[in-house]
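ARCHIVE CARD
CATEGORY: sequence design from structure
SOURCE FIELD: tokenized fold
FIELD CONTENT:
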């Protein structure tokens, strides 16, 4: 089984290009995630460092990355590891490792990533955008007499 799940921050805005294919143009987004890694030292204190993981998203995932992902955005990425190699202009063999993205999503709200508000605000939408959401306790009150129409009772 080849499956990887990563959580980290984008080191820069995604680089997106479009390839010509049989089904038209397909977006290919490349980005790098800085993923925290803790390692213990001899003294017992944890030292924190990061791994920089190259990721590639195709199609609609690539278009989504182009539209919404920016440097510093915290992401949760699910995919598979793919390795490869090529010979560069100097004739040296270069080996590559990257994550082919199957699923990608925001790992924190838009407000939390910008530092303007500390808590979770419902997936990165501002209060104005989520005005349709109920204000009392995240549940909507169901009017009397509508119980019979609900698929769950």
């Amino acid at each position: 089984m080849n499956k990887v799940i990563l959580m980290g921050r984008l080191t820069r805005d995604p680089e997106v290009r479009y390839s010509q294919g049989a089904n038209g143009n397909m977006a290919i987004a490349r980005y790098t995630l800085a993923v925290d890694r803790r390692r213990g030292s001899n003294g017992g204190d944890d030292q924190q460092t990061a791994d920089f993981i190259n990721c590639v998203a195709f199609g609609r995932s690539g278009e989504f990355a182009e539209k919404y992902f920016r440097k510093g955005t915290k992401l949760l990425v699910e995919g598979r590891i793919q390795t490869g190699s090529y010979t560069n202009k100097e004739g040296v063999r270069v080996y590559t490792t990257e994550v082919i993205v199957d699923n990608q999503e925001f790992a924190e709200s838009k407000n939390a990533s910008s530092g303007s508000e500390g808590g979770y605000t419902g997936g990165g939408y501002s209060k104005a955008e989520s005005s349709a959401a109920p204000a009392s306790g995240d549940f909507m009150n169901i009017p009397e007499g509508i119980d019979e129409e609900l698929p769950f009772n």
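CARD ANNOTATION: The CA atoms of residues 10 and 126 lie 22 Å apart. Residues 60-68 form the longest helix (9 residues).
SHELF: design records, drawer C
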